[in-house]
């Protein structure tokens, strides 16, 4: 497992780095086969007591799990993000086991993983598609799609890019501004 710790606008102390390394090592007990763990701390303002955004990303085979937490104290933010990650891992493992019962296999490595603690384990969530929405896709520019998204009052908008004909998603970012998702072939 490779661990990467980065600070964007915030310094990473050796004490915090050691803390993160020790706590992150436990992740592999519950989710074996981790390829890498990435911790990114971003300071949102130049003030010392400003909230820090901490993003914890775990990559395993073809799976990416990510959580984000905000807190002025990086240690508290990391602990909260780690708790969220444990819940996310429990949900991921539950889904993988459900697939095994439906005829799809779950890898042996995941099946042999240590069980999640009782306070973390979640009941399986029943997922159902409750609505299917159909819409006409009209080629438009990124600017037009953002304008349309704003007119509808949505947080995202699916559109066909008029320059290359690909399906894209325009979305509003929490930190302000917009983003566009483009699928690679």
Explain this structure.
By secondary structure, the chain is of the alpha/beta class. Helices cover 31% and strands 29% of the residues. The protein is built from five helices and eight strands, in the order βααβββααβαβββ. It has helices spanning 14-24, 27-30, 74-101, 108-111, 142-152; strands spanning 2-8, 34-43, 52-60, 63-71, 139-140, 156-161, 167-172, 178-182. A hairpin with a 2-residue loop joins strand 3 and strand 4.
What is the secondary structure topology, with strand pairs?
Blueprint lengths: L1 E7 L5 H11 L2 H4 L3 E10 L8 E9 L2 E9 L2 H28 L6 H4 L27 E2 L1 H11 L3 E6 L5 E6 L5 E5 L3
Parallel strand pairs: 1-2, 5-6
Antiparallel strand pairs: 2-3, 3-4, 6-7, 7-8
CATH level 1 name of the largest domain: Alpha Beta
H/E element sequence:
EHHEEEHHEHEEE
Helix content: 25-40%
Number of helices: 5
CATH-scheme architecture of the largest domain: 2-Layer Sandwich
Q: Tell the overall outline.
A: globular
Largest sheet, if any? 4 strands, mixed
CATH superfamily of the largest domain: Ribosome hibernation promotion factor-like
Structural class: alpha/beta
Essential attributes:
185 residues, alpha/beta, Double Stranded RNA Binding Domain, SHC Adaptor Protein, 2 domains, four-stranded mixed sheet
């Amino acid at each position: 497992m490779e661990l990467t710790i980065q600070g964007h606008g915030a310094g990473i102390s050796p004490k915090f780095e050691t803390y993160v390394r020790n706590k992150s090592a436990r992740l592999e007990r519950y989710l074996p086969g981790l390829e890498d763990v990435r911790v990114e701390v971003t300071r949102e303002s130049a003030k010392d007591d400003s909230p820090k955004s901490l993003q914890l990303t775990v990559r395993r085979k073809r799976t990416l799990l990510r959580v984000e937490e905000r807190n002025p104290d990086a240690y508290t933010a990391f602990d909260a993000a780690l708790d969220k990650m444990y819940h996310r891992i429990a949900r991921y493992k539950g889904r993988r086991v459900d697939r095994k019962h439906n005829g799809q296999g779950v890898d042996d490595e995941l099946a042999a993983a240590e069980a999640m603690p009782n306070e973390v384990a979640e009941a399986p969530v029943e997922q159902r598609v409750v609505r299917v929405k159909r819409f006409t896709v009209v080629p438009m520019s990124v600017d037009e799609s953002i304008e349309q998204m704003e007119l509808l009052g949505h947080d995202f908008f699916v559109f066909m890019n008029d320059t290359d004909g690909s399906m894209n998603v325009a979305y509003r970012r929490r930190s302000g501004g917009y983003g566009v998702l483009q699928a690679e072939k």
